[in-house]
Amino acid sequence: MRKIRVLVVEDSMVFRELLIRNLNMDPGIEVVATARDPFEARDMILAHKPDVMTLDIELPRMSGIEFLRKLMPQYPIPVVMISSLSDKVFDAMTAGAVDFVCKPPAGASREDIENFIRTELPVKIKIASVAKLNNTRRREEVHSGHYNRSPVNKKDMVIAIGASTGGTEAIYSVVKGFHKDIPGVVIVQHMPAGFTKMYAKRLNDGCEVEVKEAENGDVVRPGLVLLAPGGDCHMELVRQDEGYRVLLKNKPKVNGHCPSVEVLFESVAKHAGANAIGIILTGMGGDGAKGLLSMKNAGASTIGQDESTCVVYGMPRVAYECGAVEYQMKLEDIPEKTYQILNMRERGGGR
């Protein structure tokens, strides 16, 4: 099987050498070139034509984000960002990066750094190698926000969304189309600890609805979006006091993830039943597919992002193939479809 050819762009000589040695230990990956800054990277791309590029955000002569903005329109290539804990990584995702990993903190041992390179980074590189770059459209091009809708006041409804690779931009496109009358929204996006709070703030700043990183016991209410925190907790929906709350529970990973979309969707199926809409977006693997099927079987309406607009058509594909998807939609059409379903239910039309 052909190895994935990788270009490593990193200005630290020590970290660059660690990346080269440990990535080359993976039988499916070959580092074919390295660069210290974007100008060298440009030359290496033309000379070696790598399949995937790893890119630091802070680089000499030009930032990694500015390099992405200049590179992607002319020479689109799957990019995995290697970032410290900073919200700049979301600017990189908007500029066209496929995914990101969080660097080990300053002072981490050599063993921890090498373990990170051997385990987390190769997975992201392999996913990026199959990503569809023509679908990483800029957010302002994906969703116009203009469509006909009727007022929605169904307080007993809840909307559950799950996503992984490519999900930061996909979720933005969907949530940007929601207005303050939208029923409570709960979201799981596969993301490292620390980044979800920053991501929730960016959504909150850019959308009409209120968005926050969920805390244990938060009430689910209209106009509020709760994003599951990254780390070691799953987020579940429960019904309490004539309404919904979310609970954060320390449990083992499910489908390799914590938080898991599966756990959220199963809890929504159990506690909200037919009073729910489930939406599964771009991502590798099958997390959430069975949970979405449970939601559908419980009477919920379910939406899956279609292949043409997914960065990685994995999670929505598995959900579609197992019969969990009632409506398969282009990303830009999902907010309007959500309102159509809500309005139909408001009129008593059921599913």
Structure write-up:
This protein is an alpha/beta fold and 351 residues long. It has helices at 13-23, 38-48, 64-71, 88-95, 110-128, 139-142, 167-176, 195-206, 261-271, 289-297, 315-321, 334-346, and strands spanning 4-9, 29-35, 52-56, 79-83, 99-102, 158-163, 184-189, 210-213, 219-220, 224-227, 233-240, 243-250, 276-280, 301-305, 327-329. It has a 7-stranded parallel sheet, sandwiched between helices. A 5-stranded parallel sheet has the order 2-1-3-4-5, with helices on both faces. The longest helix is centred in the middle third of the chain and has 19 residues, at 110-128. The radius of gyration is 20 Å and the shape is elongated.
Summarize the structure.
This protein is of the alpha/beta class. The protein contains twelve helices and 15 strands.
Q: Top keywords for this entry?
A:
five-stranded parallel β-sheet, 351 residues, alpha/beta, 12 helices, seven-stranded parallel β-sheet
Helix-strand blueprint:
Layout (H helix, E strand, L loop, with lengths): L3 E6 L3 H11 L5 E7 L2 H11 L3 E5 L7 H8 L7 E5 L4 H8 L3 E4 L7 H19 L10 H4 L15 E6 L3 H10 L7 E6 L5 H12 L3 E4 L5 E2 L3 E4 L5 E8 L2 E8 L10 H11 L4 E5 L8 H9 L3 E5 L9 H7 L5 E3 L4 H13 L5
Parallel strand pairs: 1-2, 1-3, 3-4, 4-5, 6-7, 6-13, 7-10, 8-10, 13-14, 14-15
Antiparallel strand pairs: 9-12, 11-12
Helix pairs in contact: 1-5, 3-4, 9-10, 10-11
